[in-house]
Write a structure and sequence with these properties.
Keywords: Hydrolase. Its EC number is 3.5.2.12. The chain has an eight-stranded mixed β-sheet with strand order 8-10-9-14-15-13-11-12, sandwiched between helices. Strands 1-3-2 form a three-stranded mixed β-sheet. The chain has a two-stranded antiparallel ribbon with strand order 4-5. It has one domain: Amidase signature (AS) enzymes (Alpha-Beta Complex). The protein is built from 15 helices and 15 strands. Strand 2, helix 4 and strand 3 form a beta-alpha-beta unit. The longest helix has 27 residues.
């Protein structure tokens, strides 16, 4: 197998070749390493790579033997660095595998390195002082999105067919949209953050991955689904595997359509046009489209304020712990301006403010649940704007406080964080490209709590009727 053949396959396809003996897992790992050498200098998506663990026991399954990358945050690999995209944590080594890492290994995935992330994942772009900017493979002058931007760029460029990613406000769906990938944010409680983390931003954070095909994300969700000791949330496993949902007829769905984000911001013309064409395509597949406002239940300002309280207060504990572990000072030599601002804001948060933020979480979750009593799926653009030039996003960060920075993050991605607060599943599907630039455009679909099955069936239908597999970015390992 050569690099062109390797990059053309998805993860499930590669695992099938390994199972048949057509290629070995070691050969695939070598090809992934070659792909990193070939394209990573132009992208800066992989911060560290290594040889796979030969002591890992052989496994079987839909992803066994497939090269894999983990995000530099929220998952721990024993003996490997875990730096959270921050100079404050530079050089820190994980003493043990996290529960999620153990499940990746049990699935037979060959983890070969770490992908870049913005500092503490508190951004929807990926330009850290520790690692530098991560570039979009469709146009290296543009952002790859975040906070799973390294994962998005690596998968889109053909380095690996799928990669670990996290999502607390859109960090799977944003890079999926910017890089032309499929990205599913699971339901709260689908998998474990333990043992080092508990509920991650009051339950807003979840983990899964980014992929080029729907079935790869479904297989990955099967691999990590399940409860671990002490988990604060648990969502029961479905009666059937998620992978079996891909390719099934979704039936005639009632799809709500929201064109304007909850912050009432503008949507790029290319994205507005893609949204209209996507709605027409769904109608042609027999689905019923219902356009409505889908009120959030609280003001946008109250929503952002509540998230700032929860995010910034949580960051204080993370940062204090990292400073204690490394013996480093908490100042501009170790943290970026936006992170320092959020740390200062979190120090000022009162317990009553945090409790008030949880009340907002409850209100939003109840409101979002009511939407799915009248529609099966809600559709929005994933993002209101196309990728920006590198350096644009963080302009003026040094003059912002923590609330202002949180507002910027949410203004950049106003369609996505609602479903983190509600805990419901949502996905970005690469349904279009911009007529003006050829950049990918993602459409977001959300469903009721624990209804990933509905989303995966719909995604499988869209993958067949509006296929994206033939699209290739400018920077492609198989070129």
């Amino acid at each position: 197998m050569n690099l062109n053949e390797y990059s053309a396959h998805d993860g499930v396809g590669l695992a099938q070749l390994v199972a048949r003996g057509d290629v070995s897992a070691a050969e695939l790992a070598a090809l992934a390493a070659l792909a990193i050498e070939t394209v990573n200098p132009r992208l800066n998506a992989v911060i560290e790579h290594w040889q796979p663990d030969v002591a890992q026991p052989p496994a079987s399954g839909p992803l066994a033997g497939v090269p894999f990358l983990i995000k530099d945050l929220a998952v721990s690999y024993a003996g490997r660095r875990s730096e959270l995209g921050s100079r404050l944590a530079a050089g820190l080594v994980a003493p043990a595998d996290s529960y999620l890492m153990s499940r990746f290994k049990a699935a037979g995935l060959q983890t070969i390195g770490r992908t870049t992330t913005p500092e503490m994942a508190f951004s929807t772009e990926t330009e850290s002082a520790l690692a530098g900017p991560t570039r979009n493979p469709w146009n290296p002058l543009l952002s790859a999105g975040g906070s799973s931007g390294g994962a998005g760029a690596a998968v889109a460029a053909g380095i690996v067919p799928l990669a670990h990613a996290t999502d607390a406000a859109g960090s799977i769906r944003v890079p999926a949209a910017f890089n032309g990938l499929f990205g599913l944010k699971p339901t709260r409680g689908r998998s474990s953050h333990g043992p080092g983390l508990d509920e991650v931003f009051a339950g807003f954070g979840v983990q899964l991955g980014l992929s080029r095909t729907v079935r790869d994300s479904a297989a990955l969700l099967d691999a990590i689904q399940g409860q671990s000791p002490g988990d604060p949330y648990y969502t029961s496993a479905p009666a059937e595997r998620f992978l079996t949902q891909v390719g099934r007829d979704p039936g005639r769905l009632r799809i709500g359509l929201l064109r304007t984000p909850w912050n009432a911001g503008a949507v790029d013309a290319d994205i507005a046009q893609a949204t209209q064409l996507a709605a027409l395509h769904l109608q042609a597949q027999g689905h019923q489209i219902e356009e409505s406002s889908f009120d959030l239940g609280v003001s946008w300002e109250a929503f952002v304020h509540a998230n700032a309280q929860i995010w910034c207060a949580t960051l204080v504990r993370w940062i204090d712990g990292l400073a204690s572990a490394t013996g480093r000072r908490i100042d501009a030599s170790t943290l970026e301006p936006s992170t320092l601002a959020c740390y200062a804001y979190g120090l000022q948060a009162r317990a009553s403010d945090f409790a008030g933020a949880l009340e907002v979480r409850n209100s939003v979750a109840r409101t979002v649940a009511s939407w799915f009593e009248r529609v099966d799926v809600l559709m929005t653009p994933t993002l209101p704007q196309l990728p920006q030039p590198l350096g644009t996003y963080s302009a003026g960060a040094a003059q912002m406080n923590g609330l202002e920075w949180t507002s910027r993050v949410f203004q950049h991605s106003p369609f996505t964080p609602i479903f983190n607060v509600a805990g419901t599943p949502a996905m970005s599907v690469p349904m279009a490209t911009a007529a003006s630039s050829g950049l990918p455009i993602g459409m977001q679909f959300a469903a009721a709590f624990a209804r990933e099955d509905v989303l995966l069936r719909l995604a499988g239908q869209l993958e067949q009727t509006m296929p994206w597999h033939a699209r290739r970015p400018t920077v492609w390992a198989g070129a």
